[in-house]
Amino acid sequence: MEAYRLEVRFTVLLAVLLLAAGNIALFFSIFPVEGNLFGFPIMYIIPILSGWFGVLILTVVANNIGNKIDTEIEKANEEEEVRVEKQKKEEGA
Amino acid sequence: MEDTMWRLDNPILGIGAIIVMFLVFYIVSYISNRKSSSVADLYVAGATVGPITNGLAMASTYMSLATFLGITALILELQVPFIMLWIQLILSIPLITIIYGTSLRRMGAFSPTHFIRERYGVKASIIAALFMILVSIMYALGQMIGIALAFEMAFGVPYLPGLIVGGLIIVGYVTIGGMAGASNNAAIQMVIIALMFIIPLGAIMRAMGGDGWFFPPLLYADMVPAMMDAMPNFFDYQFSPKWYFSLLGLTLGSLGLPHLAMRIYTASNLKSARKAMVWFAFIIGLVFSATYAMGFVGVYATQTQGLAISSADADKLTLILNLVYNPEWVTALVIAGAVAAGLSTLSGNLLAIGALLSQDIITTLKPSIPSKTRVKLGYAAVFAGGIISIILAINPPAFLVVSILWAFGLAGVTNAPLIIVGVWWKEANKYGAMAAALVGGILYIIVSPFVFPSVVLTGHGVTDGMGLSGAMLAIPVSFVLLIVVSYITNRIPKLQSTLTTAEDHKLIERIHGWTNVHPKRYNSTVGAAITVVVFSAVAIWSLFPWNL
Q: Does residue B486 lie in a domain region?
C-alpha cells in the first residue's frame, strides 16, 4: 500500500500546488498588495512569473516523482507476485 | 468615428506567405500519411511520437487563435482580469498528465470517450461523445472565425469569402493528413507560431521606443509608467474574488478537452509523455507571456500613441499592430503564423470529432464494421466536422474567444468529472456518470446566455458568455451527482446485476499500473464525502449575487 499512498498523496499535492501556481491572482484578489517588482505592479508580474516558471518547476518535479512512482508500483507488483508464489508453494507442501 | 479598413496593401505578400506555409504542411502531411494505415495511426500516430515533438504539438494544439488573436482582443477591451484568466490555462496538460493522462495512456485509450466506454458502458460513452462533439465544434468555431479574419486581412476580401476559402483549405489539409501529419506539422507550426508572434512583437516594441524589445515576453517594464499615466486603471483587478475563483472552472474544463488529452496518447511511453509535459509548460509559458505583452502593447498604442481600433476590430489587434508598426512583409508572415495557430488547433478539434463520431459512436453501436471502413468513416467525420464549423462561423459572436471558453466549461461539466472520478474512485458507476453528464450538461447550457438570455447567473455579458458563471454552478453539480448517484445505486440490490463492479475495479487497478486488485485502493468514502461537501458549497455560492 506504500506505493499507492505515495501515488495518491503526490497527485493531490501536485494538483493543489499547480492550481495555486496558476491562480495566484485569486490570492491577490483576496489579499491585495501594493508595490512594484521588476518595474511592474506586484499583483501583475507575480501571477505571470508563477504561471510560467512556477508551473514549469512543478512539471519537472511531477516528471521525476511520476517516474519514481511507476518504479515503486512495479516493485510492489513483483513483491506481491513473489508472495503469492510462496503462499502457493506453502499450501502445496 | 469612421472604421479603418485594416488589410495588406499588397495582398500578394499575404497570399505568398500562406501558400508557402501550406506547401510545407501538405508535404509533411503527405509523407506522414503514407505511413498511416490503421485507426491507431490516424488518431494517435501509432503512439510513437517523441517528447519534444509531442510537447511542441501539445503547445501548438493548445495555442490556438484564441491566444494569437482572441485574448489580446479581450485585454484591449477589458484589460488585466483577462490576463489573469489566461494564466491558469497553462495548467491543462500538466494536470491532465498527472491526474489521468498517464493512466489512460497505460490503458491504450484512443480518446477520453474510449475510457468512458470501458469504465461506464456504451450508453454513458455515447452521451459523453455527443457532448464532446459539441465541445469540439464550439472550439473549432472560434478557430474558423480567426482563420476568416486572417484571410480577410491577407486577401483584402470580406469576412464570408475569407471564411469559406480559408476554412475549406484547412479542412482539406486535416482530412488528408490525419494525426501523424498533424503531430509532425504541429511541431513545425509551434516553431512558426512562436517566431511569427514574438519576433514581430519585439519589432513593434522597438518602434514604440521600448527598451526590452530583445525579449518581449517579460521586458516591457519601461513602458509601465507611461501606461499608468495614460490609463491608471489598466492594472486593476476590477472583479471580486468570486470571479477569480470561477476561473478554476476553466482549469477543470481544460481537463475535459478531448483534442488536448489525445496528445498524451500519442506519446511513445509514459516517461516520454511526462517529458512532453515539461516541454509544453516551457513553450506555452513563453508564448502566453508574449500574448500578455502583445495585449499590453496594444492598449499602450491606443492610450499613448493615438492608434484607434474599433471594438469590431478588437480580434485583429495582433495583426493591426504589425500593420501599423512593421513592414508589410512582416505582417504577411504574422498572418501566416495566425493561420498556422488556427490550423494546428483545428486539426486537433476535427480529428477529435472524427474519432468521437466514427470510433466512439458508430463503431460502438456497430462493432462489426471492418477496419478499412472505420478509417474511411473517420476521414468523413473529420471533413463533416470542419464543414459544420464553417457554417456556424457565418454568423460569429462578438469575440472569437467566447465560443472557445464556453466549450472549456462544457467539457468541464460533461467530461472532466467522468474521467477524474472514474480514474480515482472505484464506486463511480454508469448511473452516476449518466446523471452527471446529462443534468450537468443541460444545466450548463440552460444558464448560458445563448439559449435563454434572461436565465443567467450574473448578467455580466462576458462572464456568462464565456461560461464562467455556468461552470461554477454546473461543474460542482456534475461531480456531486456522479458521486451521490453512484454511491446510492451501488447499494440498491435490484441494480447489482446491471453493474460491472468487478471489471471496473480491475480496470482501475490496471490503468494505475497494478497487476492485482486490492479492495482498499481507490475506494475512499471519506475522499468522496469531502468532495461532495466542498463542491456542494461551491454550487450554492455560485447562486449568490456576483456583484460584478
A: no
The CATH number assigned to the domain holding B251 equals 1.20.1730.10
pLDDT along chain A (93 residues), means of 10: 88 95 96 94 96 97 92 87 85 71
Amino acid at residue number B526: V
Q: Is B452 helix (H, G, I), strand (E, B) or coil?
A: coil
Tally of domains in chain B: 1
Distances (CA, A) of B408 to B92, B178, B230, B300, B453: 11, 24, 35, 30, 20
pLDDT (0 to 100) of residue B165: 87
Spatial contact of B38 and B44, defined as CB atoms under 8 Å apart: no
Write out the residue range of the structural domain in which residue A70 sits.
2-92
Q: Is B178 a residue whose pLDDT tops 70?
A: no
- CA–CA distance, B197 with B297 (Å, rounded to integer): 13
Give the whole-angstrom CA distance, residue B350 versus residue B353.
5
| Closest chain A residue to B296, measured at CA | A44
C-alpha grid cell, residue B154: 491577407
Residue B530's CB: how many other CB atoms inside 10 A? Answer: 11
Which DSSP symbol is given to B4?
A: P
B270 at the A interface (CB within 8 A)? yes
Report the residue from A10, A22, A76 with minimal CB separation from B88. A22
Indicate the residue of B80, B95, B275 with minimum beta-carbon distance to A44.
Answer: B80
* Cα→Cα distances B89→B59, B165, B246, B262, B289, Å: 11, 31, 13, 17, 12
Task: Give how many domains chain A has, as a whole number.
Answer: 1
**Per-residue pLDDT reduced to its tens digit, B101-130:** 888 888 877 678 888 999 999 999 999 999
* Secondary structure (H, E, C), B235-282: CCCCCCHHHHHHHHHHHHHHHCCHHHHHHHHCECCHHHHHHHHHHHHH
CB within 8 Å of B327: residues ≥ 6 apart: none
Measure A93 CA to nearest chain B CA, in Å.
24
**Matching residue, cell 507575480:** A46
Instruction: Give a yes or no: residue B417 inside a domain.
Output: no
Q: Could you list the residue range(s) of the whole structural domain that residue B52 is in?
A: 11-393
